[in-house]
Request: fold
Amino acid sequence: MKVFITGGAGFIGCNLADAHMKRGDEVIVFDNLSRKGTDANLAWLRENHGDRLTFVRGDIRDFDALRAALPARTGRVYHMAGQVAVTTSVVNPREDFEINAFGTFNVLEAVRANAPQAITFYASTNKVYGGMEDIVVVEDTTRYRYRDLPLGIPEDRLLDFHSPYGCSKGTGDQYVRDYARIYGMKTVVFRQSCIYGLRQFGVEDQGWIAHFCIAARLGRPISIYGNGKQVRDVLWIDDLVAAYNAASDHIDVAAGQIYNIGGGPNITMSIWTEFGPMLAKLAGHPILVTYGDWRPGDQPVYISDIRKAEHDLKWTPRVSMPEGVERLWRWIDANPQLFG
Reply:
């Protein structure tokens, strides 16, 4: 099978590419290599897979480049490219829109023109639900929690785009869904929670688990915005790859659908009051942090209700957070030269 991945040298994209090439598929990675770590990820893919990998340096804002790179016989398209940070979107909302909204439109039009039969995946975000100020949140000793939603936020939650990032990703989210309805394309939207794992070069405003691990390993400063009790459900990268494969295996059900994909209520962590001690144990010493004001659009708690994905796709997360974080720590500890 031919597989086309925008942002294929990024964290999620390179793990998808690796999984496909391990099973014998040919993968085209379309990436502008603007994100930290993408050069290293691309080199890793080339070293491990050779001729099964085709790399095209391009930008999703360039429709002609997308059409030229996308083969007619493509079986799957993964749209993983994007501007990924709320803070960056606030500083430069125009660029954020051009990449996430217009870029996603370009990807859909390229698929519709060249490979309308392809299963097309879009990596959306829980930020499409906004701040969810109407939901009662309770503050406990180490974390926030929903008072009335023990299983988390379902897909039928009203959309309330908050921040330019939420607006641009939400625009793409709805376009991808509608192309299944209007043009009969086999599109699937994953509203992803916090994904973490190997090959992730986390930075302060995106990829918090990897960022904290890298900073702790290299002795770099860590800033916590808010009080550190913010809770997220988290998902190990291999479990996410399994979810994409499950959606492909059940495409007759999944086409045109939207799924919340994350660790769900059973795999959650507060970003510092609970994660901090876990990280200190791995590092072998206390970790000092500084605290700052809350950031725009930051949710005190977000947990995905993943029952729809479990039912439709016959998928469930398997890797616990302690197991996943230890794997990530070991990889960072063994490869400090990658994070210079």
